[in-house]
Design goal:
Its EC number is 5.4.99.-. 22% of the residues lie in helices and 28% in strands. By secondary structure, it is α+β, with helices and mostly antiparallel strands. The chain has 3 domains: 3-57, RNA-binding S4 domain (Structural Genomics Hypothetical 15.5 Kd Protein In mrcA-pckA Intergenic Region, Chain A, Roll), CATH 3.10.290.10; 63-126 and 209-233, 2-Layer Sandwich (Alpha-Beta Plaits); 131-207, 2-Layer Sandwich (Alpha-Beta Plaits), CATH 3.30.70. Strands 5, 8, 9, 10, 11, 12, 13, 14 and 15 form a 9-stranded mixed β-sheet that branches. It has a 4-stranded antiparallel β-sheet with strand order 2-1-3-4, with no helix packed on it.
Length: 240
């Protein structure tokens, strides 16, 4: 792959901007400045390159986990708050990465992003039932009746079929662990409201078999590798 195409594919701007970055001598491969956009490099197995002293690895498709803080909208064109893309390198938006299902602006925790359309579709399709584990701090003490309602199904406003949690458990008097399979608009808040309580804080802990890493600080992101993707798909123990 030539150098211009390499930078372009990784989100470093238009082809013209990529040629400019290269001509300015800002790109190095194996420690050597590369200033010819037509220079050719094999991208396999994993080509590393530096732009402005920052090290990147070529990725055909990008998969990322973000520990989303409150106060950020998942849209690239937010209405009232900053976009989550403020927390990420500009190359991510440039190469077309998008959130894999949205979290409300006040929800925290695990958010996946990718530019792999098939992956985004597979994990957001209503037909693909991916369990998502949420921790909800609720206003009123949880009782068994509420938990039973959540497990057996509650009717959400405007819907004809009840929505049931895969699991609903009390972690504390006012801390609910809820596992849902669908990703309907404000699903957890609406389900909890329909069970007679109210969500005051919401955090996503897990998607499929992939849990938010404890080492990932709020606002920080990390690449997902093959074993993370296998865990997401519910294939624990599978190695790359
Ligand atoms: N359910 C909600 O109500 N909000 C979220 O952000 C995610 C799930």
């Amino acid at each position: 792959m030539d150098l211009e195409t390499l930078l372009f594919s990784q989100g470093f701007g238009s082809r013209r901007q990529c040629r400019g970055i290269i001509a300015e001598g800002r790109v190095r491969i194996a420690g050597v400045v590369r200033d010819d956009p037509r220079d050719d490099f094999p991208v396999m197995p994993e080509l590393e390159f530096e732009v402005d002293d920052h090290l990147w690895t070529y990725r055909e498709k990008a998969y990322v986990a973000l520990n989303k803080p409150a106060g950020y909208e998942c849209s690239r064109d937010p209405q009232h708050h900053l976009s989550i893309f403020h927390l990420l390198p500009p190359q991510f938006a440039e190469r077309g990465m998008q959130a894999v299902g949205r979290l409300d602006q006040d929800t925290t925790g695990l958010l996946l992003l990718s530019d792999d359309g098939a992956f985004v579709h597979a994990f957001t399709s209503p037909r693909r039932k991916v369990p998502k584990v949420y921790l909800a701090t609720v206003r009123h003490p949880l009782d068994d009746e509420q938990l039973t309602k959540l497990r057996e199904g509650v009717l959400l406003h405007g819907e004809t079929k009840p929505s049931a949690a895969l699991a609903a458990a009390r972690r504390d008097e006012r801390l609910l662990e809820l596992t849902v399979l669908e990703g309907k608009y404000r699903q957890v808040k609406r389900m909890v409201a329909a069970s007679g309580n109210r969500v005051e804080k919401l955090h996503r802990e897990r998607v499929g078999g992939y849990a938010l890493p404890e080492s990932l600080a709020q606002g920080a992101w990390r690449w997902l590798d093959e074993s993370d993707l296998a865990a997401l798909r519910g294939e624990p123990g599978k190695t790359p």
